[in-house]
Specification:
23% helix; 4-stranded antiparallel β-sheet; 10 strands
């Protein structure tokens, strides 16, 4: 009997299968949904030069992001069948997602997340040096947000995947190295924890793509048009 899995592969077949792989550098990050108390704390204590920085600019400064994934915690059972070990899922686990942001000349990228983390650990003035300073953690409902999104699209932007993080908050910031020598762009990496994520697949309006490719503004306009439709 002939093996139907083995067949001749043409150049057309190869191009159809692997000729259009997804690329890593087409994405958009959006951060929103901050509660009033959190927003007021950032505006009053964050010392941001631009009060609309987090809603208008921060997402565009994201140089690296991780699409979320999950796994299962399992329990092992040995007694159902003699000599057979089985595993059953009991909890779905979500790995923290890391976001890396360019730091602007006003350091608003750093100040924004510092203010957010200060709010998590207390409502008092941020970065106090008083000897009797203490921390009292805020309620999760006040500092968690559900409007952090990563939109993954391709060069023709005809389709996209949107990952929405539910109840996300900054869990940690990595140390930011500085050094003498050749200059490099300053970046800050923030690790976000979240309860779960939701994936949505949507189509966006056709956009004319010439040989020069798409400009960032064209991409933003197309995504904005789909969001408003």
């Amino acid at each position: 009997m002939a093996n139907n899995l083995v067949k001749a592969v043409t150049n057309y077949d190869i191009k159809k299968l692997i000729g259009q792989p997804a690329l890593t550098n087409y994405y958009l990050v959006q951060i929103g949904g901050l509660k009033d108390n959190l927003r007021n704390h950032i505006n009053n204590n964050g010392r941001l030069k631009d009060k609309t920085f987090w809603s208008n600019t921060l997402g565009l400064l994201c140089s690296e992001a991780s699409l979320p994934t999950s796994s299962y915690a399992t329990a092992e059972v040995k007694d159902n069948f003699i000599g057979v070990t089985q595993e059953f899922a009991h909890t779905r686990l979500y790995a923290d997602s890391d976001f890396t942001f360019y730091v602007d000349k006003n350091y608003d990228s750093i100040k924004f997340f510092e203010a957010w983390m200060d709010f998590i650990s207390g409502r008092g003035p941020a970065q106090s040096a008083a000897s009797n300073y203490f921390r009292r953690m805020n309620y999760p409902d006040d500092y968690k947000v559900s409007e952090i999104k990563i939109t993954k699209f391709e060069r023709d932007i005809k389709s996209r995947l949107q990952y929405q993080f539910i109840n996300a908050f900054p869990k940690g910031m990595t140390s930011i190295p500085v050094a003498y020598g050749a200059a490099d762009l300053l970046k800050v990496t923030v690790s976000f924890n979240y309860d779960r994520y939701v994936v949505q697949e949507t189509n966006i309006p056709d956009v004319t793509v010439d040989d020069g490719g798409l400009e960032g503004e064209e991409i933003n306009n197309a995504i904005r048009a789909n969001r408003e439709s």
